[in-house]
């Protein structure tokens, strides 16, 4: 019986991560968030919860929450591109 060739660890970890990730709507938004908003904005706020398509984003301060609220339409459009139309229906921004 022959052994299979070793697999690069990056491929093995990607397969493992894909199998163990939760399949919730929030988890999908969290995975798409960084690409949807870019690395700078992703550092300003993180998806914390989801209910009926409304995702709550925790922000570090009220100025950041207000700035993200002003960009809500663009962020929703990018999330729709990544996750599908009406996957996220609204975003709420809060400090904390």
CATH class: Alpha Beta
Domain count: 1
The tally of beta strands, per DSSP, is 3
CATH fold annotation: GMP Synthetase, Chain A, domain 3
Please identify, by name, the CATH architecture: 2-Layer Sandwich
Q: For the largest beta sheet, what order do the strands appear in spatially?
A: 1-2-3
What profile does the largest beta sheet have? Answer: 3 strands, mixed
Question: What's the helix count?
Answer: 5
Quickly give the structural class. Answer: alpha+beta
The coarse silhouette is elongated
Uncertain residue ranges: none
**Beginning-to-end CA distance, first to last residue:** 57 Å
CATH homologous superfamily label: K homology (KH) domain
Helix share bin: 40-55%
What do you see in this structure?
The chain has 96 residues and is α+β, with helices and mostly antiparallel strands. It has a single domain (23-95), classed as K homology (KH) domain (GMP Synthetase, Chain A, domain 3). Helix content is 54%, strand content 20%. The chain has helices at residues 9-20, 25-37, 39-44, 62-70, 72-83; strands spanning 45-51, 54-59, 90-95. A 3-stranded mixed β-sheet has the order 1-2-3. The protein starts with 8 loop residues before the first helix and ends with a strand. 17% of the residues are buried.
